[in-house]
Amino acid sequence: METLWSVHRPVRDLRPGDHACLAYSGEDEQRHITGAFVRDGLLVQEKVIYLAGSAHDAVPGVPADAPAGTLTFLPAGPREGDAFDPAAAVAAVTAEIAAAERAGFRAIRVAADLTRALRSPAGLERVMFFERHLERAVPPSTHLMALCQFDRRRCHPGELDALGEGHTVFAAPDPEFEDAVLRIVRTFRPAGLALAGELDASRHSVLDRALTASAARAGTGEIHLDLAGLDFIDLGAINILAAAAGRHEGPGGIVLDRVSPQLRAVLETVGWDMLPGLRLGES
User: Fold this and answer.
1) Among the three residues 114, 143, 172, which one is the final residue of a domain in this structure?
2) Which of 153, 51, 159 is nearest to 95 (CA)?
3) 195 in any annotated domain
4) In this structure, are residues 146 and 20 in contact, taking their beta carbons and an 8 Å threshold?
């Protein structure tokens, strides 16, 4: 799906001129990322134009006190069995952008869930038509950004690759925690957290809070921790992982993925990788 020039950018860092793509793996991921895109715009009184699959779709991330007139909902998706009309969708979005410009909005966000359109007759061809027209409008812009969304579970082989070629930016979740030393990001496929940087004693409480929140989301399912970007972890942090695994209810446990050889050796030496609920996963 990605090209040599692709970049992953946290949704909070999307900027005017970005035509970003989100291939979500479930409604939770869509709400988390698209909801942040919508909410961030509305909270600073930017214009948000949401192109939905149907009139029954909900717009994620809308705060209860969103200023009037900042959100426009366009149910442009086709009815079941009908074809998506990309020209009409382009015209509707273009008209709303022009109206927002006349109203004096300093920035405009377009969010489009194109999954329903993709699954309509000749869907890929028609969605690509819409994407090409949106691409012409966004990159030169100093005040317009777009986020196009697709449910990867409903995409046929090759469709995501074709759609990805029209985007150089891929929207990523905002970090759960980030400072100059440590970064923790929620993951969805598999569900859990990705850790990067260094985990020392001053960040034990941060790790514990992140694990507690992840366990609440997971229920009895597995919690995957991607440790590929972790350069250092102290014994206290490893002990926190073991304790969290012991508290986690159900058969899922905590799975440590992409563990470095150095950390793997530490785990094997102290024997914590043999504790119930904590195991090594994908290398």
Assistant:
1) 172
2) 51
3) yes
4) yes
216 and 161 housed in the same domain: no
Residue 2 lies in a domain: no
Decide: 108 and 114 in contact? Cβ < 8 Å. no
Residues 97 and 13 grouped into a single domain: yes
Reference 223, options 197, 199, 249; nearest CA is 249
Q: Are residues 95 and 140 in the same domain?
A: yes
Which band of pLDDT confidence, cut at 50, 70 and 90, is reported for residue 79?
A: confident
Range(s) of the domain holding residue 64: 7-172
Residue 1 falls inside a structural domain: no
On whether residue 72 sits in a domain, the answer given is: yes
| CA–CA separation, 79 and 116 (whole Å) | 9
Q: Where is the domain boundary, 139, 156, 172? A: 172
200-229 per-position pLDDT tens digit: 999 999 999 999 999 999 888 899 999 999
Residues 163 and 197 in one domain: no
pLDDT digits (tens, 9 = 90+) for 223-274: 999 999 999 888 899 889 988 988 887 677 899 999 988 888 877 777 766 7
Helices (H) and strands (E) in the chain, counts: 8, 13
| Residue 164's pLDDT band (cuts 50, 70, 90) | confident
